[in-house]
Write a structure and sequence with these properties.
- By secondary structure, this protein is an alpha+beta fold.
- The chain contains 6 helices and 13 strands.
- It has helices spanning about 15-25, 35-40, 55-60, 60-75, 105-110, 210-220, and strands at about 5-10, 30, 50-55, 75-85, 90-95, 100, 125, 130-135, 145-150, 155-160, 170-175, 185-190, 200-210.
- About 30% of the residues are buried.
Length: about 230
């Protein structure tokens, strides 16, 4: 298979097992012990998919987990777990939402048809701006949710929210700490509903409309060197 993938996995038996399987499939793989190492070295190289070791992922810091979410959105991705006792690998594809999908099936159905691309992400920094969040462009006081950002980059942010955003693709919000409090529009790329996962509920967005002056103020903010 003419496919190039990323593997994020710390050194050890699991990593070698994953590499043995990809080698048998004729897949080219670049290996990194963390997402930070990936971004520091070859993030500008084009790839067609992402493999993540479950144990490596569970031991990440909160900030690295936020970085990983952005990269998982960027590529076809599969989570892998090595069972040393049985000598087997269990896979979960983020796209297929199916357990025990084979690596070969993941590559064939999701990676081969995916146009290789590089990340070029702005790493999001953990910073908690106070935010007025709305599902409606009118920003009516009655429907505002008072919340905070969990992380922010030049291109977007993760906003904490206890509301259900599953049927929405756009949101509007005001960042209280900015001098210019014009509403900012964001495209919602993913959401986590309250009570569904053991993680912070909210929405991951890219800025759809934001003034250049607001971007400059975000970039220069003392809490956020982005």
């Amino acid at each position: 298979m003419s496919v190039k993938l990323i593997l994020v996995c710390k050194e050890g038996e699991a990593r070698q097992a994953y590499l043995n399987e990809t080698k048998a499939l004729g897949v080219e793989v670049d290996v990194f012990p963390s997402f930070y190492e990936f971004l520091k070295t070859t993030a500008n190289n084009p790839y067609q998919g992402l493999m993540i070791d479950l144990e490596t992922q569970t031991k990440m810091s909160l900030e690295e987990k936020n970085v990983s979410k952005a990269i998982i959105e960027f590529f076809p991705a599969i989570q892998m777990k090595w069972h040393a006792e049985s000598g087997s690998i269990r896979n979960i594809s983020f796209g297929m939402k199916t357990t025990n999908v084979s690596l070969k099936e993941f590559i064939k159905t999701e990676c081969q048809s995916f146009t290789a691309r590089s990340v070029r992400l702005n790493i999001r920094k953990i910073v908690h701006f106070n935010v007025l969040l709305s599902k409606d462009e009118s920003m009516h006081e009655k429907f505002l949710e008072r919340t905070v950002t969990i992380n922010v980059s030049r291109g977007g942010c993760f906003l904490s929210s206890g509301r259900d955003w599953s049927n929405y693709s756009t949101t509007w919000f005001i960042i209280n700490e900015l001098q210019d409090k014009s509403p900012i529009a964001g495209n919602i790329h993913w959401s986590v509903e309250w009570g569904k996962q053991m993680t912070i509920p909210g929405i991951g967005i890219d800025f759809r409309y934001i003034k250049q002056s607001q971007i400059e103020e975000l970039v220069s903010h003392r809490s956020l060197s982005i």
